[in-house]
């Protein structure tokens, strides 16, 4: 089978496509014929050797995939099942990835059945962005019905997922973006829309909430926008630093949680796949249920063939992906 391999730490261009042999399954593992694999910014960190637990070289990157089970060493997963897989998991003491390949080996605990009405490309684009939003909002921030949620970068993949998840959890949602077209996208999703380039974000949030501020802030942009959100967090609010799409990682004074009586709560989806896979499974089950109900409506991903894995990762690294990117193997 063919796989995109990282053989030395570096940039996306260092990935090579090679034929690799199949390895025998160990107890509890399954083999999946991969149809599609999602690409995430964390993949860039993994191939650069900057992932929190760097894998052993060489390895095939990829945190999420969807396909069909072709071999199973687990009584819980049947051959022929349509599934998604979330990675990494620990194997021989090392984090094991492997989604950027025609076939993938994963623990049965890291595999979840998908409904027939979702195609493989869409399924492969769900786990990281929707799983992050669900765990961050529902578990880490304990978002409650009637609370106000502020989402920065609302038209991005993770931001739009957070808007949908927040609304399903009963929150009033405010979101930021820039430009009239993107503002309308947010409004169509049922969010109060703020143009962060032409409006004062903190003032608008306080205006919308009658001076109370946002109970939960799902912050994906970083930089100056993160600083602005600290000015409109509610008493006993929760700030969720999810990413830094601006490229500017914010530095936070200890005075912010002290004076604002707020919490700053991190959420790393990959850490949950390694340390609390049952929470991931529960989150994804609920996400798939909401998908079946028609409430979750992912933006259709862009697709590229496995042969262009390096090009696809470079597009993500350079913020030129134009939405969620998925590698197609078939």
Automatic annotation (TrEMBL):
GO MF entry, a single one: oxidoreductase activity
This protein's source sits in the domain of life called Bacteria
What are the Enoyl reductase (ER) domain coordinates in residue numbering? 10-327
Known SUPFAM superfamilies for this protein? GroES-like (SSF50129), NAD(P)-binding Rossmann-fold domains (SSF51735)
Pfam families in UniProt: ADH_N, ADH_zinc_N
> Which Gene3D superfamilies does this chain map to?
Medium-chain alcohol dehydrogenases, catalytic domain, NAD(P)-binding Rossmann-like Domain
Which SMART domains does the record cross-reference, listed alphabetically?
Answer: PKS_ER
Q: Could you identify this protein by its name?
A: NADPH:quinone oxidoreductase family protein
